[in-house]
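How it folds:
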Amino acid sequence: DLCGLWIDSDNIGLCEIIGSGTTGVVYKAVDRRSYHLYAVKCMLKARTPATRIHQAREVLLHQRVSGHAGVVSLRRFIEFGPFLFIVMDYYPEGDLHTALVKRNRYRGNPRLIKRVFLQILDAVGHCHKLGIFHRDLKPENILCNANGTELVLADFGLATHDVMSIEHGCGSAHYMSPEALGAAFKRVAYSTQHSDIWSLGVILINISCGRNPWMSSCPREDAGFRRFLREPDMLREILPITEDMNRLLKQIFVINPRQRPSIPQIKKAILRISSFTI
């Protein structure tokens, strides 16, 4: 716990822990000069060449996509003692997961669902245009602003510029595509771009229905997903979704990654949908 530590020539103070993950701990921080609040991610400096490459990649890729309205801004990068600090904008409303679980913010509001999901698509599309693929898209890595009407993409700890990857198991099982999970399919290189598309489909269900369609996209481990492979229309039985929504989800959740729709195609489909749930 580094609360009370001052960094950046004693100008930024770490106040409280607001999040943690596999790659670091995130603190709420204040700049004593401007009283501006920041979110500061703290990581231990890597001891191995592979981990040093990973940390440098996170900062580099986040810097590259920063500046877009739908991506949390990376303000500076600081080395201090044995630690690395990434200083970012602070969002007091927290993440999308909290908005879904504790505030039930979006269910039954198709206009708001459409608004925020299009923002997510714009942010991910921006990253993809720059050749950067997130690989850990989930509500916990999307931050909220303006009472949940504005969303921004965060946490590039697993992001990559590799179009094809052999790193399986990157991300959270609920959101990983079958090919990225790798458990029930041949562990061959997979398309990181198309894997992100799969994750977007799960997030759309989260926002619209407040739940996940399955625990894992591994048919050996998840009976629900196994049934979906046999009966793609089963989503309408377990979720209160409209036929238009079901049609889009079936296009996103195809096993062949190359057959999944592009982000512009998903945008067009979202704009045509008048209601996501029944």
